[in-house]
Amino acid sequence: MADIFTSDDNSTPLTPEEREGLKPKWITLRRELNDFETRNILDAEMWLATHKQRDILNDTFLMRLHRRMFGQVWKWAGEYRTTERNIGAAPYQIPVKLKTLFDDVRFWVENHTFSNLEIAVRLHHRLVLIHPFPNGNGRISRLMADLLMQQLGEPRLYWGDASLTDITDLRKKYIDALHAADSGDYTELIKFVTA
Question: What class does CATH assign to 2-194?
Answer without folding.
Answer: mainly alpha
